[in-house]
């Protein structure tokens, strides 16, 4: 086999970068570092599985440079909107609704598909909403966290005389904002003088950043500043266990890392497995982040590292970030504030074996709190009810071509039968594909690139997809 040829990968990356920026419509440029399917050692497609669906992203480059976008599994940006002071994390809410955080109001707001405001959550409460997470139930009630500002004299435990404590107040509210249940961080996780930082005027000793339901109806809460995840029992929201931090109930087996630090996006995978984005600040190996899966034994209270992915480029995110398991077994990772002067953050989809099946990177200065992927047809689709592929989703933001099973160009093929351009009679399945003209005449998804496809040949061309018989050998 030939050695790994970085020139081929660089050429492919340059092409992918230009292609990604084009689909970014110049509003939110991005580059495709690893095209869908991954890259093998020769720079050709590795054929790795990629989860079908659309990425929903909310990137932040500054208060006015906030963008909501959809990117499909082919690395095409199919929808993007600039959303000054709004976003950070956007997701579907009720039918035909989306929810995101409005920084000007310091509240979660509900918007329609044209981003018109329909409602403001917790409008009857004076405290600010926390911007990290919100969860809606089928009955219209929802989980949200408000940050109470409580002023106390902490001099007796080494703090300041008029310290402002940020207390996370988890609330289950009805559609009418009636309080159905609530939980206070200070009540259940009091300040610890030896382990919490009390030296600043604002004491954000917990810094809650995610809430997720587990398989048994309990709640998993993540507290960044304690490097701790706790589980609340479903019946009364009492603390069942604490994972990580100075008072962990678990002994964690994590060779070379010694546990997670300042984590984000902790959620339950079932069967005792927890997945999170471990920011890894102050790790024994230096500054390095990872996606981390732990298996919890809640009888013997041990936690074992059973899977992780740390990026081969040694990517580090001091804040933000997410990791979620996809239906095909891959893990989708957003690398938070991983940013340099040259490049912004990135999104990776990796296989269970740790291979990168797909990866994009944004321009310098862009950060990304979370990445989520939704099944095809949920966020993008055909909205024409007369089309054979009409979508019934109420959350359509991106458009896909509508199919009508009509032969518009009289070439004997309909769009439903596979005609990828029913306005041009020279384009249909099986047509002659002109090499290197940038047009897919035969509708097989690629333009013909002739060349030598034998990896043992001296003139092997990894980007070729049709062997032209030109191979030469030593």
Question: What do these coordinates show?
Answer:
This protein is mostly beta strands. Among the domains are: 215-315, Lipocalin, CATH 2.40.128; 405-474, no CATH class. 5% of the residues lie in helices and 37% in strands. It has helices at 6-23, 185-188, and strands spanning 30-34, 54-60, 66-72, 77-82, 86-92, 98-102, 107-111, 117-120, 128-136, 142-152, 163-173, 179-184, 202-203, 208-213, 219-223, 228-232, 239-243, 251-253, 264-270, 273-278, 290-297, 302-309, 322-325, 331-334, 346-350, 356-362, 367-374, 380-381, 398-399, 450-451, 466-467. The chain has a 5-stranded antiparallel β-sheet with strand order 1-26-25-24-23. Strands 9, 10, 11, 12 and 13 form a 5-stranded mixed β-sheet that branches. Strands 18-22-21-20-19 form a 5-stranded mixed β-sheet, with no helix packed on it. Strand 2 (54-60) and strand 3 form a beta hairpin. It is globular and about 80 Å long. It starts with 5 loop residues before the first helix and ends in a 7-residue tail after the last strand.
